[in-house]
Amino acid sequence: MAGFPGINPASAAAPDVPGLVRQALLDEVWLTPKPGLVDGANSGSHRDMDLPMFLDSITAIGPWFSTFHALGREHAGRGACEMLRLIRPAGIACEQAMYQATQGVNTHKGGVFSLGLLSTAAGRLQGQGKALTASALCASVSEICSGLVERELVVARKASSVGERLYQQFGLTGARGEAESGFLTVRQHVLPYWQTESCPKRRRLNAMLRLMAANPDTNLVSRGGLAGLRYVQRYAARLLQQGWHEDDLRQMDADLIGRNLSPGGSADLLAVSAVLAEIAA
């Protein structure tokens, strides 16, 4: 579907969201030092993955973001409530491509979910002839995911996934809740401060700390319980308050590795932040 009658189609100069997604994934994994996470220095708290595996994973899933975009554009005239069902087969296929590239290791499942939704929303907005802005993208993702937490977490009687278990134990909504909120954590705690750092690397590291300080990261809770989450949140907040150097992040990396903590949910949101910040710029 090219667009709605009477509405000019989206400009050919509109941001290439699938391309921005692929670049954001590469920038995120190379960003170093990244406490507890796979980066250019080490594998963080992960014994089953490393940088080459992440690069293979990005190569495998990268083309699928164009597929999500195309599906969003093709079905732009359908109701937002239908979009999750329409993109689900592509999401499953994308995850399968990831697992094939990593020999069964989950490197980017959260990223596939969040960034796949961003790509779908971008295609949907362009198919409707609407301007592609960061706020419009977030609103579209929220609309697509309306009721998702209720359907998949609240009414789930038996926890069949880590996300469902953590919701039942602690009320954490994870990636589903963040998407349904239109990436509220990113909008409140990262985007307003993105341009306060002129150095691109420091900008991303600062954004990572802001996410670690604010995000109720289910990856941290699954490894260290609520105590692990609070430890990382307080640690990141303290570094932000006092001012930080890369040596501080290297020390934090060692501390998180020692506690087997990995803020993987915040890493996914860092990639989301980079895409939205690029569009907002």
UniProtKB/TrEMBL annotation:
Catalytic activity: 3'-dephospho-CoA + ATP = 2'-(5''-triphospho-alpha-D-ribosyl)-3'-dephospho-CoA + adenine
Family the UniProt entry places it in: Belongs to the CitG/MdcB family.
Transmembrane spans: none
Name of this chain's protein: Probable 2-(5''-triphosphoribosyl)-3'-dephosphocoenzyme-A synthase
EC class: transferase
Pfam (any one): CitG
Annotated InterPro entries: CitG, TriPribosyl-deP-CoA_syn_CitG
Signal peptide: none
Gene name as annotated: citG
GO terms of biological process kind: prosthetic group biosynthetic process
HAMAP family from the UniProt entry: CitG
UniProt key word DNA-binding: no
EC nos: 2.4.2.52
Keywords: ATP-binding, Nucleotide-binding, Transferase
Gene Ontology molecular function, alphabetical: ATP binding; triphosphoribosyl-dephospho-CoA synthase activity
Entry superkingdom: Bacteria
